[in-house]
Amino acid sequence: MNIHQLSVVYHVDHDRILVLINTLAGEELRLWLTRRLVVNFLPHLNRLVIDVEAGTLQLANHDELSKKAVAEFKKQESITHSDFKTPFTTQASGYPVGQEPLLVTSIHLAPDGKGALRIGFEEKMLDQPAPRGFHMTMASSLLHGFTHLLESAIKASEWGILDPQKPIPDALDAALEKSRPSDPPTYLN
């Protein structure tokens, strides 16, 4: 699949992020990302983006700080050269996984060894006979554009998962602590 355009937007009425992908063939793929999925997916995505960049520059033996700095530099360079002004084309010639967006329940990530990342999106529902999904490969520049758009949508969502002062696991632990009652449970026979 050759990707032509990406759109990543937070929809407050659904409290989800909608990802739209246009291909050069004029097809459109649609998917929903929930907060729970993004919380689990984002750290892995960020880690693999660093690894992909380090692999393209043979930085395997360098320290983690150097790898992150190179990845951040490449991201800024990619964002500077990307076109975020052209409106997303909404007329599609087809919808390979259907017009209704996938409600993504699992994401599979794997570097392809050639400076790109293979991403698989899958929707598994109990009432569906077979899961829906698709795979795509994103080269470094497209990957940086996607992560930039995803981070912008996450900020718009106000989910609080990009707060650098509070890592994601700590934020989840704090939320769980607040939801637990302070008194021990009472058992009635």
Fold and architecture overview:
- The protein is an alpha+beta fold and 189 residues long.
- It has helices at residues 35-56, 64-81, 140-157, 168-179; strands at residues 3-11, 16-23, 28-33, 102-103, 106-111, 116-123, 132-139.
- The strands form two sheets. Strands 1-2-3-4 form a four-stranded mixed sheet.
- Strand 5 (106-111) and strand 6 form a beta hairpin.
- The radius of gyration is 19 Å and the shape is globular.
| Structure summary, number of beta strands | 7
Fraction of residues in helices?
25-40%
Specify Rg, calculated over alpha carbons.
19 Å
How much of the sequence lies in strands comes to: 15-25%
Helix segment count? 4
Order of helices and strands: EEEHHEEEEHH
Q: What structural class do helix, strand and pairing data support?
A: alpha+beta
**Shape estimate:** globular
State the strand order across the main sheet.
1-2-3-4
The parts where pLDDT drops under 50 for at least 5 residues are 165-171
Give the termini separation: 61 Å
| Largest sheet features | 4 strands, mixed
Q: Kindly state the mean pLDDT as a whole number?
A: 82
Brief descriptors of the model:
single chain, about 190 residues, alpha+beta, 4-stranded mixed beta sheet, 3-stranded antiparallel beta sheet, about 25% strand
